[in-house]
Amino acid sequence: FPVTIQLRKTHITATGTGSTVALTNVNYLPKGTMVKFDGHSKVYMTLDDCTGDGSVRVFPPLRAPVNDTIMYHGDDVEMTVRFDLDTVIGMVYTDGILQDMGSVKFVEAV
Questions:
Q1: How far is 107 from 94, CA to CA, in rounded Å?
Q2: What does the pLDDT read at residue 18?
Q3: pLDDT at 31
Q4: C-alpha span between 93 and 18 (Å, rounded)
Q5: What is the torsional sign of CA 84, 31, 43, 74?
Q6: Are 57 and 66 in contact (CB under 8 A)?
Q7: Could you say which DSSP state residue 6 is in?
Q8: Do the Cβ atoms of 62 and 16 come closer than 8 Å?
Q9: Is 85 helix (H, G, I), strand (E, B) or coil?
Q10: Cβ distance 61 to 19 under 8 Å?
Q11: Which residues contact 64 (CB under 8 A, 6 or more apart)?
């Protein structure tokens, strides 16, 4: 079943296609930040630091262009995921009660 985490909007705006996005209204955005664009269901990761208005590379490449779009980042990102039940390791139930979560893999539900 999908799990949705809903947080708040930011005021950074983005324009771009492919792997490069131009940002405005940025103070500091570190490399490795999870970002999402208004109207997109996919979550991306920045590959560069951004200290002020400028461009950053994102991975994976944008699925659709963004044009003056609100960008969510860090704790403001909303991501829907599902469990990959084929990779569950060490999960233990006793009398129908989960005793040990083990390890699970989350897959983005785009």
A1: 27
A2: 84
A3: 92
A4: 45
A5: positive
A6: no
A7: -
A8: yes
A9: helix
A10: yes
A11: 40
- Label residues 6-41 b or e (16+ Cβ within 10 Å = b): eeeebebbbbbeeeebebeebeebeeebebbbeebe
How is residue 1 written in tokens?
């079943």
Which pLDDT value is given to residue 9? 45
3-class DSSP assignment, residue 76 = helix
Residue closest to 63 by CA, chosen among 80, 46, 41: 41
- In the predicted model, residues of the chain with pLDDT beneath 70 are 1-11
Q: How many Å apart are CA 73 and CA 68, to the nearest integer? A: 15
Unique residue bearing structure tokens 């006793």: 94
The number of residues making up the chain comes to 110
